[in-house]
Amino acid sequence: MSDCRSWTRALCALLEQGADLAAGLERESFACLSALAPGGSVGAHLRHVADFVAALLRDLEGGAVDYDRRERDERTEREPARARARLLALCAEVQRLERRDPAQELRVRAEACLVGAAWQPSSLARELGALLSHTVHHYALIAVLLRARGVEPPPELGIAPSTLAHWHGESPRKSPAPAGSQACAPQAG
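Now predict its structure.
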C-alpha cells in the first residue's frame, strides 16, 4: 500500500514557509488591506489557507470534508505570531497523515462545487493535492501584495514545488530564468 508522504511533506513545507513569512513581517505589512485585492491582506490569505487545511483535518475521520464550514479566526489575519503558531500546529497534524492510504474515499463540499451535486466524491490524495495547489495560489497572491508594499518576498513564495524542483536541477529540464528576468512565458526545452 502506498502512503501520503509525498503530499504531506510538500504541504508541510508550504505551511512552514507561510509560518516563516508571518514571523518575518511587521504587523502593518502582514495585516494591511490592499487596493489590489479588496478585503485581502497577507494575513487574510494565510488565514484562508489555514482554514482549508484545518477543515480537511477536522472532517477527515468522518469522510465528509466541508470546506465551506471554516472557522475564519480573524485574529490570525491581524497577528503574525498567531498565524505562525497556527500554521505550524497544522503542519504537525498534517505530518500524522503520512502513513494514511491516499486512496481513502472522501466526499467534499466547497463553494467551488456549486455546479452539480453539493457533495463530490474525492480521495485523500486528491484533497492533499488540491490543498497544495490552493496554498501555492494564495502564496502567489501574497507575493504580489508584498511587492506592491515595497517588500520583496522570498523568491520561492508562490512557486509550485514541481517548478522549484525543476529550477533546482531535480528535473532534466532547463534551469530557471535569471533573477530579474522579464520573460513572459517559459521557454520550450
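Residues 172-189 have pLDDT under 50 and may be disordered.
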